[in-house]
Amino acid sequence: MPKIVIEFDKPIYLFTMGIKRHIKIGILEALIMVVLSSIFIYPRLQDAGDYVFIYPFNLKDGSIYWALFLSIFFGGLLFFLNIYYAIPKYLKQRQVNKYILSIILLFFGLLGIEFLAKFPLQAIYNLPENFETLYGTDYDNVPMRRNLDIPNVIKSLVLLALSFGYRYLKDWKQIMEERTRQQTILAEKWRVELNYLKSQVNPHFLFNNLNNIYAITKRNNDTEASEAISRLSSLTRFMLYDSSSKYIPIAKEIKYIQDYIEMQQLRFAEEEVIVNLKLEGDIEHTNISPFMLIPFVENAFKYGVKIHQNSIIKIGIKIKNGSLFFNVRNKIQQSKNNHVYSGIGITNVKKRLELVYANNFELNINNDETYFEVQLRIDNL
């Protein structure tokens, strides 16, 4: 009998599976804020010569650019800290007093830091002492001056108001997306249940007869046949009773994988196919939508093994901090004309991942013509 090596060591996973989606969105939002600030500032710089100020910072010595940077930077901090920290941590949890206190601390804390940050700049540019040297007069007598300075309190209040509006739009968009996703899941569930009811008779018939055949092989002392039928019966039981559940313990999915591996290895000689199955974490108390992992293992056997050739399939399943890390790697044993790696099974899994786990998963499939590898991470299990 070919063997399955089950190890409980720490498997090696690639944790850097791309930049997270919310980080990309944050970078995009910051760029949009810079662009909008530029749209406000740029027209006021036109046809003004050197007479543009955030007193005592000015355009002639270039110190105004640092003042603008500080204003945009600390304004952006207030904007985004309210959106991504204060509102979700306190206001959404109905902790209004804590929210008000956090906003007051952010408001005056950032204003104070911005105020203090300007002192080193004034020292570097020798302002305001150097102002009259640059312009030949004091600020009050500068002709055609254009002031970009907005009172910090007004600026901060406007940014807080805008952040409230922006957060409301983001939440509304997420609610609409979640509602659409739930409707799609419901429609898919009804379709699957209908197909399941139509096909339920045949699996019951098969399952009952498998038990009868198993009894016959046991009576005739045909150990290998009875073991194979027992595995097939277990697989059928899983498909018949567990596949209709919304979530199952991941231990059941792993048991199915182990039975499937045993069934497949009956076709091969001893040591011809070795499967390294590494398990780590709380697999007994973590749930997953059924048939999320199995198609990738089936794919590995379909294209990663060949009669009379030694093959190794590596499978890793790890639960850590509420996340699943799943990895399958196999050498490609089929010819270039025969291997089709994005078959119906994997395509269906991709669709189901999008429906069930939305933005809480990441799937990478790598094919370098020598090895085929699947890396799946599901968060918030």
Can you walk me through this structure?
The protein is α/β, with parallel strands linked by helices and 381 residues long. The chain folds into two domains: 4-15 and 183-378, 2-Layer Sandwich (Heat Shock Protein 90), CATH 3.30.565; 47-180, no CATH class. The chain has helices spanning 21-45, 63-91, 96-125, 131-135, 152-199, 201-219, 223-242, 250-265, 294-304, 344-357; strands at 4-7, 52-54, 57-58, 146-147, 248-249, 273-280, 287-288, 311-320, 323-331, 361-367, 371-378. The strands form three sheets. Strands 1-6-8-9-11-10 form a six-stranded mixed sheet. A three-stranded mixed sheet has the order 3-2-4, covered by helices on one side. It has a two-stranded antiparallel sheet with strand order 5-7. A hairpin with a 2-residue loop joins strand 2 (52-54) and strand 3 (57-58). Helix 2 (63-91) crosses helix 5 (152-199). The longest helix has 48 residues, at 152-199. It starts with a strand and ends with a strand.
